[in-house]
Amino acid sequence: MTPEKFPEHIRDHIIPTPSGEMCYRCLGCTETFGIDKLLYTCPACGEVLLLQDMEQNRLKGLSGQTWREILDYRRMLKIPALKGIYRFHEFIGPVIPLESILYLGEGHTPIVQANETLQEIVGMPFYYKNDGQNPSASFKDRGMASALSYIRYLVTSGKVDNVLAVCASTGDTSAAAALYASYLQPLVKSAVLLPHGKVTPQQLSQPLGNGAAVFEIPGVFDDCMKVVEALSEKYNVALLNSKNAWRILGQESYSYEIAQDLEFDMKNKVVVVPIGNAGNITAVMAGFLKFLDAGIITELPKILGVQSHHANPVYQYYSEPDAKKRRFVPMTVKPSVAQAAMIGNPVSMPRVISLVNQYNKKADCQKVFFVSVPEQEIMDCQLMANRNGHIACTHGGETLAGLIRARKEGLVHSDETAIIDSTAHALKFSGFQEMYFEDRLPEEYEVKPQKSLQNKPVFIRPEGLKEVPAPGMPLTGTAFREFVCQTADAIANNLHLSLRDQ
């Protein structure tokens, strides 16, 4: 559908043009800096940065109802730059021209309602948002679409050249970074650092397949992050971890999509996200705050952050009820099936603290909560979800376990509706499922399989068969008929099937 067919009062706003004035704002000293070059930490005090639109109040020039109409009608456009996260252009990267926007099919992942069985187990209605249906099969594509679109803009406007994009990763970030950078080659090349032996084979194959330089180093993600930070401080590279504030902007689209899919009605809603490097929960809060400020939504949803017992520094921080006594202490993580969240010193922690305060203040009550769950519940919940029609990764199991825990603790209620995050596709973490089924998860994971959730293939070869088919050696005639008949009978016996009435 083309804009001339849209209502006249929104026609001029359907296709956005560059607007606003963006800057980096330090969360420590509050100093602001221009965006003509990439910054990751404050040049004045070294604290974490957020991107801010200095002219954001201009968005209030349109009513919330008008914005809702604009965004709904924009859904009908066939313009690639506006099909993904930049449907929300004015809220994500208003200074970026449409021709610089990189779209690979990311965003607008479905929210899938849980069936009655799962809703009864949890005790409230809820949906999964399947971010594993992004191009590289994880939510990280949202941030990469934003970060690489801005890098593309800097390159095409002559402000930078010969860009080498680098990141530390537990798997999903490297896959997304390599994919989006490969689209822009030879203008952009990529290199990723991974903790040796701590990334699933499926995740490792992705940056290799997209042509990135892949380096495995001893230690865990936190060690990789320190090396990448050292590279970005000393050498001319573009950092693509969530320390990059453009990444956070792109991930705000998660909030905008939920709001739009729920008709912008966020009353009695709960958004549940796992926490690793804390960029995602930061972006979710920031996104809802922007929509509230613009009048697009009229109420903030609850936010529930979930961590594993094996990597829960954010939960530990907020477990102290007295805000004045809270002190953030990085922790040494233990192995987790929620591998991407196995981070003991999240770089976005200063952003979390700042935004939680803003969020609760704007809501006039506590709206952000945190829970911690054991590895056993994470793995059991992933399998339970997928046995009921979902494609949840282990982090999707973590959010389901977190929702169940929050329900028991009275943090959420039966008259609310939850939207829980499955950050990646189940196939990325199929190795953990396989180990669960075969009861060979290492002891340090502290997971023992429930028999009711285990599954394995059954090899069928009836004992009476003299001949069976093999590749390149098909059966024919009587031998083939006997094979089909006896194998079918053996399977029916295994499944306890009844004969049809004659």
**What is the class of the largest domain in the CATH system?**
Alpha Beta
Compute the average pLDDT. 94
Question: SS-based structural class?
Answer: alpha/beta
* Fraction of residues in helix: 25-40%
Contiguous runs where pLDDT drops below 50 for at least 5 residues: none
Rg? 25 Å
Shape: globular
Task: Describe the sheet with the most strands.
Answer: 6 strands, mixed
For this structure, the CATH topology of the largest domain is Rossmann fold
Main sheet: strand order: 4-5-13-10-11-12
Number of strands: 13
Beta-strand percentage range:
5-15%
Number of domains: 3
Per DSSP, the total helix count is 17
> How far from one another are the termini?
57 Å
| Oligomer description | single chain
Task: Please give the CATH architecture of the largest domain.
Answer: 3-Layer(aba) Sandwich
- Reading the helices and strands in chain order gives HEEEHHEHEHEHEHEHEHHEHEHHEHHEHH
Enzyme class: lyase
Keywords: Amino-acid biosynthesis, Lyase, Pyridoxal phosphate, Threonine biosynthesis
Organism: Desulfobotulus pelophilus
Protein name: Threonine synthase
Overview of this structure, please?
This protein folds into three domains: 111-135 and 252-453, 3-Layer(aba) Sandwich (Rossmann fold); 139-245, Rossmann fold, CATH 3.40.50; 459-502, no CATH class. It contains 17 helices and 13 strands. It has helices at residues 8-14, 64-74, 89-92, 116-122, 140-156, 172-183, 201-209, 221-234, 245-251, 253-261, 279-293, 313-318, 349-363, 375-386, 394-408, 430-437, 477-495, and strands spanning 22-26, 32-33, 49-53, 111-113, 126-130, 163-168, 188-195, 213-217, 238-239, 269-274, 302-308, 368-373, 417-422. The strands form three sheets. Strands 4-5-13-10-11-12 form a six-stranded mixed sheet, sandwiched between helices. A four-stranded parallel sheet has the order 8-7-6-9. Strand 6 (163-168), helix 6 and strand 7 form a beta-alpha-beta unit. The protein is globular and about 80 Å long. Residues 104-417 form the Tryptophan synthase beta chain-like PALP domain. Keywords: Amino-acid biosynthesis, Lyase, Pyridoxal phosphate, Threonine biosynthesis. It comes from Desulfobotulus pelophilus.
